[in-house]
Design brief:
This protein is mainly α. Helix content is 71%, strand content 2%. A two-stranded parallel ribbon has the order 1-2. The chain is flat, with a radius of gyration of 23 Å.
Length: 328
């Protein structure tokens, strides 16, 4: 599955990025504990001790909230940069099949992300034992959740890299896919409310039922996990990004194995995606700009004018992004 020769090649090619990712992911969790402890000591030095609390609360933003970023960088280096620099053709010419190439790239980055954070979790756990804070909230759930979410982000970027022909396309595709479930639901609902003059939440038995459904649906949006709101809800929510990781992995693996590589520089390597994605972008442009035009003047004319602008913008953005080959 993973070839030694390819593994060594990936290590030498991306050694600096891999090492920096490991250092950051190992230290992020324990440094968050140290920062909390130093803040507590600073409070003791300047205020009455009764006003100082040493509480470790992972619900409050800390350094591990951006642990997904190394996964994004690694995926870009493993696939997007290879496409943009035309070195992917050289790798494909080596005596390895596509499955071996993808599996080696994928699992090298995946193990860096997971094992580094597991080591950081152990170091943070030891620091908690040493410092002995008054209360610790969401430590295990937060640490494990960040590992799952950062791995999901890595899988998403690897899938996007397997579908696209350059770094810009990889990042844009990944971002669009991360927000796609929200756009598919929110934009049609918003336009439905404008056209028919109703509020969706009024159709529910109670406002609480509407907001509960909206909150639950938000966990189907990958980009929503960037914020740590999931911490205060059920731990079983993490099964959703875990399932998404598997889905993104399968998409990336099948795409890399089956799709051609001759369209380097194009947005998508598989030209059959060009037209459907262009139609989707134009649709989002029409619906999105229509809502913006309506909110600006609260008039149907503003709504129609916004839709026209959205159609034009969507067409040109999709055309120049998808159909214009990036120069190498």
């Amino acid at each position: 599955m993973v070839d030694r020769g390819l593994l060594y090649r990936e290590w030498k090619q991306n050694q600096v990025v891999i090492l920096l990712s490991i250092v950051f992911l190992v230290l992020a969790n324990p440094l968050s504990i140290v920062n909390t402890y130093l803040s507590y000591q600073g409070c003791l030095a300047h205020q009455d001790p009764q006003y100082c609390d040493f509480i470790v609360n992972y619900r409050v933003s800390n350094l591990i909230d951006i642990n997904w970023m190394p996964g994004v960088i690694l995926a870009v280096c493993f696939l997007g940069m290879e496409r943009s620099k035309d070195t992917m053709d050289f790798i494909l010419s080596l005596p390895y099949n596509r499955s071996q190439i993808f599996q080696t790239k994928f699992w090298l980055g995946g193990l860096v992300i997971m094992l580094s954070q597991l080591l950081g979790f152990l170091l943070a756990w030891l620091l908690i034992l040493v410092y002995n804070p008054e209360h610790v909230y969401f430590f295990e759930h937060g640490s494990v959740g960040v590992i799952v979410i950062s791995f999901m982000a890595y899988c998403l970027l690897m899938a996007a890299g397997a579908l696209t022909g350059n770094v810009f396309a990889q990042l844009l595709t990944a971002f669009a896919a991360a927000a796609l479930p929200y756009l598919i639901v929110a934009l049609p609902v918003g336009n439905f409310e404008v056209v028919f003059g109703v509020s969706i939440w009024e159709m529910f038995p109670s406002p609480e039922a509407y907001f509960s459904l909206a909150s639950n649906l938000s966990y189907l949006v990958p980009i929503g996990y960037v914020a740590n709101g999931w911490l205060s809800d059920s731990k079983y929510i993490l099964l959703i990004p875990a399932a998404m990781s598997i889905l993104f992995y399968l998409i990336g693996y099948i795409s890399f194995k089956k799709h051609p590589s001759e369209r380097n520089g194009h947005f998508f390597l598989w030209n059959r995606l060009d037209r459907p994605v262009q139609i989707l972008v134009m649709s989002f442009g029409i619906l999105g700009f229509g809502l913006f035009g309506y909110s600006a003047g609260h008039s149907i004319m503003g709504y129609i004018f916004g839709m026209i602008i959205g159609a034009v913008v969507g067409f040109f953005v999709s055309y120049f992004s998808i159909y214009k080959k990036t120069k190498h």
